[in-house]
Write a structure and sequence with these properties.
There is one protein chain. The protein has six helices and three strands; from the N terminus they run ααβααββαα. It is an alpha+beta fold and 121 residues long. α3 crosses α4. The longest helix is centred in the C-terminal third of the chain and has 22 residues. 18% of the residues are buried.
């Protein structure tokens, strides 16, 4: 994945944050840290990098002046889409050996893992 992202000038940690932002929309930094398995300092560095490149912006959260939500920019969406396309051959090769129905099963399990419901708890 690192090799697939290199021509785009982003690292996996940047792509992970863009993925969360593309999926969830504006997200506060502590939730970004939790979603990506990062710590507070690490997520701040990644968001700083994304802001410098114009791929994300921090915006005030109504009702709490201390909290900032991170939002993907149109340029960030373009880069995310390009990264998704670049990663597609790798993703396909990773699941090429799965048997009938196994890709669907893997997708269901990963979705449950990433987005648990009350039934999963």
């Amino acid at each position: 994945m690192t090799e697939a992202l290199r021509p785009l000038g982003v690292e996996l940690r940047h792509f992970a944050v863009l993925l969360v932002l593309a999926d969830r929309g504006p997200t506060v930094q502590r939730d970004l840290a939790a979603a990506t398995g990062s710590d507070k300092a690490g997520i701040m560095r990644v968001v700083d990098d994304l802001e410098r490149r114009g791929l994300a912006v921090r915006r005030a959260v109504p009702g709490d002046r201390r909290v900032r939500a991170v939002e993907i920019t149109p340029e960030g969406v373009e880069l995310f889409d390009a990264a998704h396309v670049a990663a597609q051959p790798l993703a396909e090769s990773m699941v090429a050996e799965l048997g009938p129905g196994e890709l669907e099963q893997l997708t269901r399990l990963l979705t449950r893992f990433a987005h648990p419901t009350e039934d999963d708890a």
